[in-house]
UniProtKB/TrEMBL annotation:
Similarity-based family: Belongs to the cation diffusion facilitator (CDF) transporter (TC 2.A.4) family.
Organism from which the protein derives: Palleronia aestuarii
Top-level taxon of the source organism: Bacteria
Record GO cellular component, one term: plasma membrane
Localization annotation: Cell membrane
Principal subcellular localisation of the protein: membrane
InterPro entries referenced in this protein's UniProt entry, alphabetically: Cation_efflux, Cation_efflux_CTD, Cation_efflux_CTD_sf, Cation_efflux_TM, Cation_efflux_TMD_sf, CDF_Transporter
Flavoprotein found in the keyword field: no
PANTHER family, per the entry: MITOCHONDRIAL METAL TRANSPORTER 1-RELATED (PTHR43840:SF15)
One of the record's GO molecular function terms: ferrous iron transmembrane transporter activity
Pfam families according to UniProt: Cation_efflux, ZT_dimer
Protein name: Protein p34
Length: 295
């Protein structure tokens, strides 16, 4: 069982615990805002299950029908998670609409708020851990799950503030209004997760700082060659795909050219997580006088 899979499994268990706690807060108070918070937790559990399935699929080795591996399964999971976040927001808006039309008083607000805050503390701790470990493991699914939970933390704090204000002022309508405002924030957050995940599915290049690192690795490990051009990159989950053309002397032997390629590939595999490197050797008359100049 991989580290990512263990974290994903724990995320499902944490989601179930938090869901039970938040439903308890709603049952204690009858608050529309707290119900909205609990509805989002149902989505959290579904999203965590989707992330767990994606991590399992993405960990499978390349095969004849998927020669480049299954890493993009994590991006698909992240897109699904973003859509679920947006769906939760629409459910919350519906509940808020009914609450605004027929405001209702709250029962046992202090106990309900205390229970909700307990669930929020759990989510805050777990969302931070998921984002940190997701970046460390280069797992889009875990990062998306962590960001999803972070929106839940913000939601919960907004809900607690809204319910407290409603109780303090006696204005029951503030409860569903706060729920509606929180739902709009969740809707925006879900759209952001979808946008970032789609960039991975569309083979977006690695960030500029990583691209500069790749250029430096080529420049310092390609002694004997003249230049490298047409450098292209893309990332799929934890895998970084790199390909470029390497210009060598026209009279260089295949053996020597291959040695240069091996040196570059070995260094990239040491310094970049799960790098897949493809190098196309060309003679010097193919030089474009651009790209990475080898010193």
């Amino acid at each position: 069982m991989t580290v990512k899979f263990r974290i994903g499994l724990l995320s499902v268990l944490v989601g179930l615990v938090v869901l039970a706690i938040k439903m308890g807060a709603y049952w204690l108070t009858g608050s529309v805002a707290l119900l909205s918070d609990a509805l989002e937790s149902i989505v959290n559990v579904a999203a965590a299950l989707a992330a767990l399935a994606a991590i399992h699929v993405a960990s499978q080795p390349a095969d004849t029908t998927h020669p480049y591996g299954h890493s993009k399964a994590e991006f698909l999971s992240a897109v699904l998670e973003g859509l679920l976040i947006m769906l939760a927001a629409l459910f919350i808006l519906r509940e808020a609409y009914h609450g605004i039309r027929e405001p209702a008083g709250l029962d046992m607000p202090a106990a309900g708020l205390a229970v909700s805050l307990g669930a929020t503390v759990i989510n805050a701790f777990w969302s931070r851990l998921l984002i940190q470990r997701g970046h460390a493991e280069e797992s889009p699914a875990l990062v998306a799950d962590g960001r999803h939970l972070l929106t839940d933390v913000i939601t919960s704090l907004g809900v607690v503030a809204g319910v407290t204000l409603a109780v303090a002022t006696g204005l029951a309508i503030l409860d569903p209004i706060i729920a509606a405002l929180v739902a709009l924030h969740i809707l925006w957050s879900g759209g952001k997760v979808v946008k970032e995940s789609l960039s991975g599915l569309m083979d977006e290049a690695v960030p500029e700082e990583r691209l500069e690192q790749i250029r430096d690795l080529i420049a310092h490990n390609a002694q004997g060659a003249f230049e490298a051009h047409d450098l292209r990159t893309r990332h799929a989950g934890s895998t970084t795909f790199i390909d470029f053309h390497l210009i060598v002397p026209g009279d260089m032997s295949v053996y020597d050219a291959h040695e240069i390629c091996d040196r570059i590939e070995s260094q990239m595999e040491r310094e970049l997580t799960d790098a897949q490197v493809t190098i196309h050797i060309e003679p010097e008359h193919k030089s474009k006088r651009q790209g990475v100049v080898i010193g």
